[in-house]
Amino acid sequence: MSENAPPVIPSSLPKSQSTQPSVRPKKSRGWMWFSFFLLFCIFSGSGFFLLIGMVGMSTASFEENTYYEQSLRDNDSSNKIAVIDLNGMIASFAVDASGHNLVQSLKRQFKWANNDSDVKAILFRINSPGGEVLASDQIADIVRDSSKPVISVMGAVAASGGYYVAAPSDWIIAHELTITGSIGVIMSGYSVRNLMDKAGVQPIVFKSGKNKDMLSMNKREEDITDEERQIVEDMIGETFGRFKKVVREGRALDNRDGEDGKTLSKDWESFADGRILSGNKALGQGFVDELGDFDDGIARAIEVADVSDANVIRYNQPMNFSMMFPFLGKSEPQQIKIDWGVELPKLKAGRLYFLSPTLLY
Q1: Which residues are the active-site residues?
Q2: CA 128 → CA 91, 131, 165, 316, 359, distances in Å?
Q3: How would you label 56-89 residue by residue, b for 16+ Cβ within 10 Å and e otherwise?
Q4: Which CATH architecture has domain 64-185+243-329+345-359?
Q5: CA dist 56 to 29, 43, 60, Å?
Q6: Domain-by-domain residue ranges, the chain?
Q7: For residue range 128-178, what is the model confidence (pLDDT) as tens digits?
Q8: pTM for the whole thing?
């Protein structure tokens, strides 16, 4: 081989002398995904329990932070007229996500208004066909015990229990087309005995006394004894007497701030037979003091409070987590519903009601 010949490069080199870098096998990244998943579970679980805690704290603090003021009319005044609404059937079942019923809600709003020195009068707007006897009586007590003048303004309907809660007011305003009156008490029940007989179902009853099953749906109407009828009629009569007492005392001028208001007519009790009355007819019998609307109610509230002007406010509930996430609250039990073609109220057999049945359908 010539000395000037180029060097011969071997076709392969030993592994230790190879010019290519060694390639390491890729490691599995499964552990990374598992770590991310584990962290996600930890933070999600912590967030969920934090949310539950916030719901609990929100519900627990609901007593203290029940309402906030919403301005309806700003008249640049230091005085205020508080508007409190009662809508729908008067009942003791829960009306909000926190489990507070109608009576509790109204009691808190009246308390807020009475404790606020800037509130000079309360405008109580009522649109209700009535409802439960006890709930109606409790609301009437709230109105009667108010330290601020209460002016009730009736909407389309303020009948039976709807009138009962307005009766202790210092002043009552109704539109001439308002449906009111229906002063009376009703108790209803149902008998399914004929249906049971057709289905071959025979009731077996064990009782401690002869009248224990007097309101049972298993009894036929002809099986109701005269004694049982008298017991129910006495209870209705006693409750009806209380209704008339609330009206009589509530409409007495010496129990009200409005000195020039209407008084009951001499024969007003003849109209307390359950009949409904128009606002115009109610005015003629002294059941209301004035015909008007919401604006007239504000003007009357300012006059009764003896102030020159006032802002008009109402109370609203603040948002809380129990309202935002109702699935964290109580679940409604499954019910079997029958479509009768109308939306029936949730009346319970054997209970007394200040209610106008003709206004429900």
Answers
A1: 160, 212
A2: 11, 8, 10, 20, 10
A3: eebbeebeeebbeeeeeeeeebebbbbbbbbeeb
A4: Alpha-Beta Complex (3.90)
A5: 41, 20, 6
A6: 64-185+243-329+345-359
A7: 999 999 999 999 999 999 999 999 999 999 999 999 999 999 999 999 999
A8: 0.75
